[in-house]
Amino acid sequence: MSRPESSFVTDRATLVRRLKMILPAHCLLVEDEDLRPYECDGLTAYRAMPLAVCLPESEGQVIDVLRTCHQLGVPVVARGAGTGLSGGAMPHAEGVVLSLARFNKILRVDRDSRTAAVQPGVRNLAVSEAAAPYGLYYAPDPSSQIACTIGGNVAENSGGVHCLKYGLTVHNVLRLRVVSIEGEIFEIGGGAPDAPGYDLLALLIGSEGLLGVVTEVTVKLVPKPELAQVVMASFHDVARAGDAVAAIIAAGIIPAGLEMMDKAAAAAVEPFVKAGYDLDAAAILLCESDGTPEEVAEEISRVMAVLTASGAHDLRVSQSEAERLRFWAGRKAAFPAVGRITPDYYCMDGTIPRKRLAEMLAAIAAMEQKYGLRCANVFHAGDGNLHPLIMYDASLPGEWERAEAFGADILELSVALGGSITGEHGVGIEKINQMCVQYATPELEAFHRVKAAFDEKRLLNPEKAVPSLHRCAEYGRMRVHRGELKFPELERF
Ligand SMILES: Cc1cc2nc3c(=O)[nH]c(=O)nc-3n(C[C@H](O)[C@H](O)[C@H](O)COP(=O)(O)OP(=O)(O)OC[C@H]3O[C@@H](n4cnc5c(N)ncnc54)[C@H](O)[C@@H]3O)c2cc1C
Predict the structure, then answer these.
(1) Ranges for the FAD-binding PCMH-type domain (predicted)?
(2) Which residue minimizes the CA distance to atom 44 of ligand 1?
């Protein structure tokens, strides 16, 4: 993908001199070998070296860094753990990376209000660990939860296996403390169910570091269920497995998790985690119920009835907590497992209406032929959120370009099927062209006006997430769909 031409030119010497005036030496990295680890996030195909990395230890230092960059007109990219898969934390070559890694304190866990206040660099799993002694946990559980930070989760509106029942990050965050690019602090949200004024909390969650830098997050905690059990169902036919997902939801059941793996994904995972997956199955569904023992028993029997009627040929129910975790282990480790069988893989993240899963899977199989690349599929099936893992070898000429075109086709088909180009990984740099497919000029202009209201000079994570109209005109020129040229009113260059 062509990178947008940058309009920023930074005087590095002045920038470094000014940063040294506000940060102690151990909070500032400027040497090439120190900057290298920050050159990409989890989307390693895209890289850029920043001019400096700031590692502030206090909110005052965050304010000083942002004020300095604002005065000098220098781009700033906030960074959590760098596990993002859309290039959101990839540095700007003329800018500064602002790492929140040292903001790693759990400030409060309040059993009575079932909330926790944490700094943004706290790892997702660490919140649940801190809440565990009170019988509570933080529900959104990205598969990367052992490493990713709450700040990154807020910026990406991250999801996970349990979000089908318990909601995404946006449904589990009550309050944010944010520093603007001008260095002003603002707090949004609160304990009450509704707040007067515009819903800036929802606007900030999922804004990919474009509107402000989060310095504190108050999250909801939920009680740990008494019991959780998983049904593992095997299908000979992928289409039937896809239809079974729609049938479960249509039966009025909202499971705690509803995930799917195709044959290629199960084959990659089984030798890695030894979860006992049926390797002859074309698709495996994992469906979790949680609650009291009575609730779980009742829901599991309803789920089994729907799965049997939908054509599952084998059904197993976890009989212990250890077995439940083993069933999930494979799904949760699908990305690294695929990483073991291919030199490189490209993880896509589209969302489609559940009832169209089977259609999408057939189309992906055809794309494997078209591009000559293999693809393993894992899904947050209950949400219709696809994670096709396209396998390629970056050292072979042309393979990355084919993988990228394969991914673009999946995303654009997601839109055509009535879905979206992202379920939880964000747009970042990766899907910026597909934003031109998802939205028309009026919506993109509205996004640009929102950005300008928070960050007039466009310094926070510039050239990400929201494409310029000219970029869309260029992309429309390159990819004409069904004979329709996108943005015909714009001049072509
Ligand atoms: C193996 C693997 C599995 C994954 N599974 C899932 C999954 O199941 N569900 C899911 O949703 N995602 C998943 N992801 C993607 C990723 O882990 C999430 O997007 C996560 O929320 C990123 O957190 P991070 O701390 O690594 O953020 P980073 O990658 O460092 O940053 C992500 C974005 O957040 C911004 N940002 C970070 N901190 C702040 C802050 N304090 N203020 C403002 N902006 C900030 C950055 O600028 C960037 O745009 C997975 C990734 C991997 C590698």
Answers:
(1) 46-224
(2) 209
Q: Is 169 in the pocket of ligand 1 (CB under 6 A)?
A: no
What is the CA(273)–ligand 1 centre distance, in A?
24
Residue nearest to atom 21 of ligand 1 (CA): 153
**Predicted confidence (pLDDT) per residue in 355-377, tens digit:** 888 889 889 999 999 999 999 99
How much of the chain, in percent, has pLDDT values that exceed 90?
A: 82
Share of the chain above pLDDT 70, in %: 95
Residue 158 near ligand 1, beta carbon < 6 Å: yes
pLDDT in tens, 463-491: 999 999 999 988 875 554 444 545 455 44
The mean pLDDT value for 106-121 works out to 97
Domains and CATH numbers, the chain: 12-99 (3.30.43.10), 106-223 (3.30.465.10), 227-335 (3.30.70.2190), 435-478 (no CATH)
Neighbours of 370 (CB within 10 A): 12
pLDDT at 253 exceeding the cut of 90: yes
Q: Is the pTM of this model over 0.90?
A: yes
Nearest CA to ligand 1 atom 9: 142
